[in-house]
Amino acid sequence: MAIFETPLQTKAVVDDTEKLICTVENAQNINKHTEYILRIQRGPCKENKWYVSRRYRDFAALHTSLQVANIDLPIPPKKLIGNMQPSFIAERQIALQTYINEVLKHQQLTLSLQVRNFLDPKNYALTISEQALQSVSIALRGDGHYELKSPLTDIGWRIRKHYFLRDIYSVEVLVE
């Protein structure tokens, strides 16, 4: 590498501790469903923002994944008939803003991979657990005493920390 060359950085550096601010800015009807446009800002810098489009079912899936934390969150109920009316969409937009504000109040939820993936899918892929499982499997390959059974569910707020259930077994050596 020459003196004046700078190393190529292929991975974006993201500070997990910076506060995320989410605003449900707008809603648009697309192909018989409504998508809500979320503006997300990381930290105090207003230039560090991006937009994500989410449907109600995405909010419902997030809500289901967060129920393991046993925190009462005010998600608006699903409505089957009349859900394309502008007045209903405006009411739901306000209710979804209340919901996401409540989620972001709780540090344990804010730092969970599910919330980070929901708000910042580019930097937080759900396949991180699978990648970690591969790395651990490769590291333990030479040791015949451990076998990975399965990844454990998200058990804490440390987003970059992944846990796996292992099984210790004995290797029998046959001697003739």
Automatic annotation (TrEMBL):
Give the CC-aspect GO terms.
Answer: early endosome; late endosome; plasma membrane
Question: Which Gene Ontology biological process is one annotated for this entry?
Answer: negative regulation of monoatomic ion transport
Annotated PX domain residues: 14-126
Q: Which PROSITE patterns match?
A: PX (PS50195)
Q: Which InterPro entries does the entry link to?
A: PX_dom, PX_dom_sf, SortingNexin/PXDomain-PKLike
- List keywords of the entry alphabetically: Cytoplasm
Q: Where is the major localization of this protein?
A: cytoplasm
- GO MF assignments: phosphatidylinositol binding
Q: Where's it found, cell-wise?
A: Cytoplasm
Q: What Pfam families does its record include?
A: PX
Instruction: Report what the protein is called.
Output: PX domain-containing protein
